[in-house]
Design a protein that fits this description.
Blueprint (H helix, E strand, L loop, with lengths): L8 E4 L5 H12 L3 E6 L2 H15 L3 E5 L5 H10 L6 E4 L14 H29 L2 E6 L12 H21 L4 E8 L5 H14 L3 H10 L9 H11 L11 E4 L9
Parallel strand pairs: 1-2, 1-4, 2-3, 4-5, 5-6, 6-7
Helix pairs in contact: 1-2, 1-8, 4-5, 6-7
Bound molecules: NADP nicotinamide-adenine-dinucleotide phosphate (NAP).
The site of NADP nicotinamide-adenine-dinucleotide phosphate has 29 residues, from α1, β2 and α6.
Pfam families: adh_short_C2
Organism: Paracoccus sulfuroxidans
InterPro entries: NAD(P)-bd_dom_sf (IPR036291), SDR (IPR050259), SDR_fam (IPR002347)
């Protein structure tokens, strides 16, 4: 299927690895010129060079912390202040217990997983409205639908972003801009290794055993792949997604047991 976005420009945040990289790869395959971002310059530059060589598009790496004003300013500068496609993403907050999180912990999580996405939309969506075309995909989490107790910081921040998008997406839809969220269940990335390491430590089992147990709880019996996640993201950024507005698209292998 031709996604109809060849020649568009896009920003994919937190994209040197994992789900962000999967999204960048799929958008590049569809012919989108990209700015990609992560904090670590070395991995980011290697990823940008690989994607550009493989798909023949322009990929500009900007090493910066996307959760800071300064980092976002540098990324927006590299875009010349405008993009047709925005994929928001950042690292997830650490697990813990609800009794232990301080105000600072909450502010940090809300900054990274709620306010950063909102700031980027506020910076880039007005230009999309002017040009009468735009697509935004926010990478959130399965935890928005089925909260994961040890990830309370993530549950809290992402719930806020979900509420914001529910309203704002309807306000910008008349102008040809489609804003949606993409909700990963467990995917085989470094984040999954880090979460499984926490479970292994807490339960006194091996990392492999933690993964086997988690896989057994998913109807597909496997973790998701960044490539498949990226392909869904690229579809949500395509011409064909014009009627998809304010949705929360869940990719979790059927792990959330609900009818809708
Ligand atoms: P990952 O494999 O650990 O990759 C994270 C990427 O984000 C890396 O490129 C990392 O590079 C970059 N990054 C992290 N913090 C950043 C920051 N402050 N500014 C810029 N770049 C940053 O993680 P992932 O699995 O792709 O997860 C992506 C998001 O999805 C996270 O918010 C995670 O909580 C959420 N999620 C993941 C899963 C899953 O199973 N994988 C499930 C539910 C939700 P640097 O470290 O160099 O910055």
């Amino acid at each position: 299927m031709d996604l109809g976005i060849r020649g568009k420009t896009g920003l994919v945040c937190a994209a040197s690895k994992g789900l962000g990289r999967g999204c960048a790869e799929a958008l590049a395959e569809a012919g989108v010129d990209l700015v990609i971002n992560a904090r670590g310059a070395e991995a980011l530059e290697a990823t940008a060079a690989e994607i550009a060589a493989k798909h023949g598009v322009k990929v500009t790496p900007v090493a910066a912390d996307i959760t800071t004003d300064e980092g976002r300013a540098r990324v927006l500068d590299a875009l010349g202040g405008q993009a047709d496609i925005l994929v928001t993403n950042a690292g997830g907050p650490p697990p813990g217990n609800w009794t232990d999180w301080s105000r600072d912990d909450f502010i940090k999580a809300i900054d990274a997983n709620m306010l950063t996405a909102i700031a980027l939309m506020q910076a880039l969506v007005p230009g999309m409205i002017e040009r009468k075309w735009g697509r935004v995909v926010n990478i959130t989490s399965q935890s928005v639908r089925t909260p994961i107790s040890v990830l309370g910081l993530s549950n809290t921040a992402r719930a806020g972003l979900t509420g914001f998008v529910a309203g704002m997406s309807r306000q910008v839809a008349p102008h040809g801009v489609a804003v949606n969220n993409l909700l990963p269940g467990i995917h085989a990335t470094d984040r999954a290794v880090s979460l499984d390491t926490g479970v292994a430590k807490a339960e006194g089992i091996s990392l492999e055993e933690a993964r086997i147990r988690r896989e057994a709880s998913i109807p597909t019996r496997t973790y998701g792949l960044a490539e498949d996640f990226g392909a869904t993201c690229a579809f949500m950024c395509s011409q064909h997604a014009r009627f998809m507005i304010g949705q929360n698209v869940l990719l979790d292998g059927g792990a959330s047991n609900s009818a809708i």
